[in-house]
Queue: 3 jobs
Job 1
Amino acid sequence: MPVGIFRVSLLVLTAIVNHPLIFPKENGTVPEEPQDIIQKMKEREETLRLERLRLEQEIAEWEATQEALEKAAKVVEQHEEEKVRWDMWTALSMVIFLLIELWRQDFQEGIWQDTGGEEDDMAVLGKAFKGVAFPDKAILASFYEKRILGTTGDMARMREMVEGFADDLLEALRSVCNRDADMEVEDCMGVGSMYENWRVRKPFVCDLIVPFAPPEPYCFRSQIWCSGDSFPPDEQGYGTIKVCRADEAATGCICDKTKLGEDMLCLLHSQANTTRPSSEMEDLLCFKNTQYLDADQVMKWFQIAVTKAWNRISHKYEFDLSFSLLDSPGALKIKFRSGKSIAFNLTPVVQYENSDVYFISHFPRSSLAVDLPSSTHWFLTFAVYERRFIQLVSKTLPANACHVSCLQILSFVHGKQCSLTGPSGLTNYHMKTVLLHLLQARPSEDWAPEKLEACLQDMLKFLEKCLHEKKLYHFFIGNRKVPAELGFPIIFQRAEPLNLFRPFVLQRDVYRKTVDTFHEMLRNMTTLINEYTVHIPLAQTNGIHKES
């Protein structure tokens, strides 16, 4: 009985507990009203709409991004194609440029100042010679014999006197200089027309160059325009000279270019071997705050040294010595008590490496020349090699060859014309350059003495051609046909040819004046020569013509 009652009670209790209306389960759902169900459906619909809009926006952004990437890829692809095409055009242009440059060099080498046998090539200015009564060889020979040949003895005596005095003066200069601090002066050398025997116009002036070197332990290191570094066109033919220690590397030590600090020491340079301060570098005639040799400082030092040297030996001579020209620092003049005087130029130079090319501190200039870029730029002179070349070629020419006679006559006539019409941009050096080119290009037999008239006309025609083209190349620079016997530095032979008439391109007034003077000289040549020639009887002239 008790057990039955317990079972019934347990059943009733279980039914009550599991009844959904009394104790609903946690996951159980209570029937909702229709309005609530509709409201929830609307909310769900709104949520889905917003989600759809968000997804559409993301898809649109992704598509825009993909489109932008595709456009960028197309731009890059087009740029790469254009770059490839541009690189191809650049490469093609470079190839064409190199071919043109090689052709130009071969052309210049093949027709170096082409003076070949074609008369049409020589007679560029045929108009200038039309109607010109050119003096015949009889008048030219008489003119040379009576007017020019007699000056040869005077030149020889003057050279001997000037050289002896210059040697004595330089020996005194060495004695007054401080061997430990001043520049070391070497023996002088004669260059130019007086030592090549073609000077004709008075007063005769000897040109002497004096090489000098720095005191120990210093040395000169030079840099020229054709050594590989880029030089502007107006600095072609120039170079710079750096004063360095003899034990210093050509590139210099890094301690000179960087600040090592107070607690660091260069192992290559001790305190006793440091670079001289700025003031002492100026004592070495360098430009202020640099190591580059200053031409103005050199000339000041040289003038002071020459003055001291003359004061030491002046008692030995019965004449006075003075500087004659302000614009030519090396111009000296000897004045005798009789009133006569002798002028000569004594110019300091620096040797280029182990050659006979020299950096010259002052170069006589004409109206054609431009000023030096700066006082640290030095002009190079090849005067020693020019003299040697003339001597070398003269050994292969016929006896009494007329090459020097042509240069003397042309120089004389041009000088007389300039005295009438004013200075010209054409100089004696230009005329000598013309002769050097013709000596190299023409056969030896063309310079026989009986061909004086033809050779003089060839020089005039060649000069006329150069004036017409505004091109007269320096004989040595860029000339790969220089005789090996001269020992000429190869670096200058491989350089670009240097146009001596380049200033004519920039100075049109000077060019026009030069051309007018040249044409006037051609028209007046016979008159100028006859004026300074002893009269030749007509019968004698005709006889000479018949013999020829």
Job 2
Amino acid sequence: MPAFQLLASSEKCVDEGLLAVAATNPGLYLIPQHRLMVERGRLVKGRSGDRRKVALVSGGGSGHEPFSVGYVGVGMLAASTAGHIFTSPPPTDIAAAITAVGRDNPEGVLVIVFNYTGDRINFGLAVERCRAAGMKVEMYISGEDCALTQLEGTAGRRGLCGTLFIFKIVGALVEGGASLEEAVDTCRKLGNALGTIGVAASGCTLPGGTSPLFEVPEGRLELGLGVHGETGAATIKAGSPKEVVETMLTQLTRKDSTTRLPLQEGDKVAVMVNNMGCLSQLEMNNLTKEIVSQLQSLGVSVERVYAGMMMTSLDMRGLHMSVLRLLDPAWLPLLDAPTTAPAWTAPCLLNHFTAGEVLIPNLTLTLTQEKMDHDYIFSEEAQAQTLKACLESVVSQLPRHEQDLNILDTVCGDGDCGSTLMKGITVLSKWMSTLPVTQPRQVLNVLGEVSADAMGGTSGGLYSIMFTAIAASLSSTASSSRKMWAAALRAGCQAISKYGGATQGDRTMLDALVPAVEALEAGSDDD
């Protein structure tokens, strides 16, 4: 059965995707016949001279969104062109991209090419044509893959998401007025300080395809794969985030590899955690935390982390981890420099308002001294003992009814009412010996905390709201009476209704509580 895909068609999906990027980013301009996206300021009539700085151009096959059009913007790429899925753009389109930002630009164009054979050939041909037409153009081929231990007999290291660090740093550099020669030199230095390794649990499915380009056996992961649907350099056992990241870092830094990243204790690094398509945000957060922790355990200082969908492989379930050694102190400010490129994930950084010492206030809620001095206290010991006996009865009796309550809850709920109540009872039983039973307001506040923290969920929250509202409404001056307790319980029901949104008759706990309040209100202290 074909995989379900929300795509216009395999023929139109790239073009419609580019139209969407242009529609959502007014600062970009699409020239559709060349699948060419340009930073709009480069083309505005009468103002293109303002943009006479070195222009960065890149591109490649589609299916890696948001790469590469998402990195067009002031401070990153001046233009990019897209091929069809996993297919290099034709030389004509690439030449159009170079010409759009390079004609009449004396500062020149730097074309950044990912190290894949098709890209090298097509981009190289376009560069030569543009040079022949009189434009000043240089080309840098990026490859930072650490999957292979030996490069002999191969096409070299593949260009992966780590190259986005080059886009950002060199883009900010030329935005500040650097020359073409300085930009090329910085690319080479960055390339020598970069390493990327990937892992995936599944292949990707091409638009219109019926199955993934490769299958990964259950319980296994592909290590060292690229972004074009190819398998990895090895198959490893699947494991926890800790185990997977440990294996990735070992491959990234292994000493017998000619492609290793020579991380050293004391290094400062920037890290990119690239979702290749289908990892949940929670998985990404867990993996990112583990990557940072393990790098720190190696004595490496993680200065910046960029996590998200940066350079995908359609719907592949996997990630790439790129590490940049910040060997030049100028690189970090360039990473932090502003850009209008919509896909660049800028972290929340310190500023002059947030860079001071952090002082965490006391986060524990307590009664004010005034309320403690005027707390409601039982005037008779018998009242306190009655409250204690009620609580002890609940603690002792509820366990035997846990399963009955769960069964009843399956009719109109999710079958865990008894189990949820038992979580609260278990904690309450540990508090029984220390409960200040002569002070019912304090007891009710404890019950509210236990409900919220131990029971959790919707019911725990509602019980907590009820107990807290009852405690707050108890008069500190009135004598204990049925009327006072009825008013307090009424306040608890009203709080449940206010925050829970239900009323009597909606088949909730209020259907039992409200009649009880009404009966209490109707009686007298003599009953």
Job 3
Amino acid sequence: MKVAVAGCCHGALDKMYETLELLQRRHNVWPDLLLCCGDFQAVRNEADLRCMAVPAKYRHMQTFYRYYSGEKKAPVLTVFIGGNHEASNHLQELPYGGWVAPNIYYLGYAGVVRFRGVRIGGISGIFKSHDYRKGHFECPPYNQQTIRSAYHVRNIEVFKLKQLKHPIDIFMSHDWPRSIYHYGNKEQLLKMKSFFRQEVESNTLGSPAASELLQHLKPTYWFSAHLHVKFAAFMQHQTNSKEELPKATKFLALDKCLPHRDFLQIIDIEHDPSAGDSLEYDAEWIAVLKATNSLVSMTQSPWNMPENNGLHAKWDYSVTEEAIKEVLEELNHNLKIPCNFTLTAACYDPSKPQKKVEPVHTINPQTTEFCAHFGLTDINNRIQQAKEEGPGRGEYDEEEEEEEMDSTGSAEEPSEYNTDNSGLSSINPDEIMLDEEGGDEDLSTCSVDPSPDHPPDFSASFSDIRIMPDSMVVSSDDAMDSTNEELEKAGVSKQVEEKSLTERPLKRIGGNENGNSSIKKIKRRNQAIYAAEDEDKTE
């Protein structure tokens, strides 16, 4: 079957679907499925805009609300993950996934589904070490910290995905897996985006959590976005035994949704001809959710997932074939995801703007039904109960959060990953600055132009086959000290830690705010990833 893959959509659904229609008219190509790798921006109204962690001038309604209201319907089944430019209050309603509009499905904080026998997984958000070990405690109305931490990847989601044993065909993440740039045309990438060089050379660009998942899941395809540049790589995985068949992953990062940009690619995927056309639950994933339900946390208290270190009675939460069979029996062997989309918020009306509307914490019936069916914790319901009961463990403590923001880990225990991809001072510390000059150039290892004038050829993008050496593998077992030693040997200064917004002047490069000249500032990524092309260099 044909699968279309898009990069950062930024709410421009009309533009994305119009591009598909143009491909059909010119090349008679129409996908069976569309995947979007984050920054989808499912914005329904003005309150949703207030829950996006972007400067006010970039808060545009775009066109998703027309699909939410039913004015339009997605012409192709669309499955997406969250990024760091999202209406977090909307996506938070569906922590286990669900329909955000007819024919548009969100995978949740992490999720796995099936379509025509193809197994599709994904993890939403971006990696930040200071939030990685916390629970999902945020709820609207957000403050300056929680509006960002709401979309930060948590260790519980990575842990769940690592319990999977059956092969994954396609996996999506918003930020790139760390080290993946070593398996494609790295020099061309650095030629186009020279300000990535220090992070690439110190092996700190990208998400270590995603890298760990890449090593564990070994999917056939891995798609990402976030950096607004097209890049292809081919990774040959090492085998654990002589009996194990070698596996390889084709990686592709897509550009953002703009005219004349390579933001969309169509590929051919082997599928099960006997499978139906409906999106389906994945039985193993449901079984894993049930097995790990006791680990779900709704507090901001940091903690590590169980591991085989002598401190936990149980650390393996992978499921048996019997557990998978029980899920199938629960569903009467009908894995079809119900089309139970429900409006949970008023839709934007251009004729009646509501600029002062405040976001509220909403419990989505889809999540209630899903949790009740499979006996899972309804995260939003638990958060709501904690709010009603008054200050307590589930409540947000702003003073405590501000103290934690000054460190890359918790006070009690260091983060299990060594570095935090925070930027320098900017309005939004999670943003990256991308020089858009020359951004149309394809950074894959072939000269493919997947524009409407040229039929896309994905297979030609992967000619550079390499095996990741053990020294580059990032895992939760990596010690903080040992990794820092490697960086020091490479002559790389330790990355400047993230500061709270109130302490950060609005400048990209400069001296240390604390007067410590021994800490080297590096030209890093700032908020202009989200800007229009003519503002990218000045934001």
